[in-house]
Amino acid sequence: MGQVGRLARIPLPALAAASVVLVTTALAFVFFVAPNDQFLGFSQRIFYFHVSIAFTAYLAFGLGAWKALVHLWKRDPNADLESYVAIHQGVIFGVLVLVTGSIWAKYSWGHWWLWSENQLVLFLVLFLFYAAYFMLRYSVDEGPQRANLCAVYALFGVVLIPVSFLAIRLSQKFIHPVVFTRHGANFGGWIMVTYLITQAAVIVLAYTLYRVELAGKRLDARLRLLRESYA
Amino acid sequence: MTTAEKYVTAAYCAIFFVVLVYVAIIALKLQRLEREVDELVHKPAASEEPERETVTVG
Fold first, then answer.
1. Neighbours of B56 (CB within 10 A)
2. Are strands A184-185 and A180-181 parallel, antiparallel or unpaired?
3. Is B55 a member of any domain?
4. pLDDT at A172
């Protein structure tokens, strides 16, 4: 059995417990262990969750695209639903990235948003692209045609992930702090430890929410079939 | 509380709020599913034909 298969077998209560423990530990590290950043000061503490959530959103969009590919390739009926739920998670985490980023920007730059910042605009484009996925999904009747259309759309969007993540790193002009450069992470010590714990916590939390939502959607689909057979 | 602390608090409250709303929506959906399962469980009993009176023939 592959890694993904093993992950899917972890019981939901265990995942939920791991999420609670990891998020609590991450918060303790963020507020009581990590030192103040030399340049950004106390406000840098926003970044532990902001950056972790951003990476998790990229992961969720990537998972959504991968499941879309599996749907188109193997015609796996579960893959369409899994792709949809992963993209939904990505959009929710995308909202959190935009909100926490704007709060930090208001404090540091004096503006909620700067259109001149490539990283912000590219992330917004990625977010809006996947937000539009839901408009497409709910404007087409349920069936193979909708699943195929959504899968193709999700695959197109994945191109924006490396563009959003890497392209601005090749640019010389930016004021948004860059945490990871081509030469590695821009921090070490307790800041790195805190970031890694936070990243693990956010990924486990996102995976737990993904599994809960997926279980609900599958139950809903089965219930619909049952209702039709009763009718 | 300094200005930086206020902004950090606001950011973490926003994260907490969004996750809480998400969990609440999932909980509402599960409640709806539970209600629908209950309806289905009781449906066959309601739609069953009324028991016919037995009569002796011949």
1. 4
2. antiparallel
3. no
4. 54
Contact A168, A119 (CB under 8 A): yes
**Average pLDDT for A56-68:** 95
Q: Do the domain assignments include residue B2?
A: yes
What distance in Å separates residue A73's CA from the closest CA in chain B? 31
Closest B-chain CA to A16:
B23
Q: Which of A45, A53, A205 is the closest to B8 by Cβ?
A: A45
Residue of B nearest to A43 (CA): B4
pTM for this structure? 0.85
Range of the domain at B4: 1-36
Tell me how many degrees the CA angle B18-B23-B27 measures, rounded to the nearest 5.
Answer: 145
Task: Name residue A37's beta-bridge partners.
Answer: A41
Which of B11, B23, B40 is facing A103, going by the closest CB pair? B11
Choose among A107, A220, A226: nearest Cβ to B4: A107
pLDDT tens, position by position, A142-184: 888 999 999 999 998 888 888 877 765 665 555 566 666 666 6
B39 and A227 in contact (C-beta within 8 Å)? Answer: no
Instruction: Look at residue B4 and tell me if it is in a domain.
Output: yes
**CA-closest candidate to residue A199, choices A42, A44, A57:** A57
Closest residue in B to A102 (Cα) is: B11
A201-230: buried (b, 16+ CB within 10 Å) or exposed (e) per residue?
bbbbbbbbbbbbbbebbebeeebeeeeeee
The residues spanned by each domain of chain A are 48-224
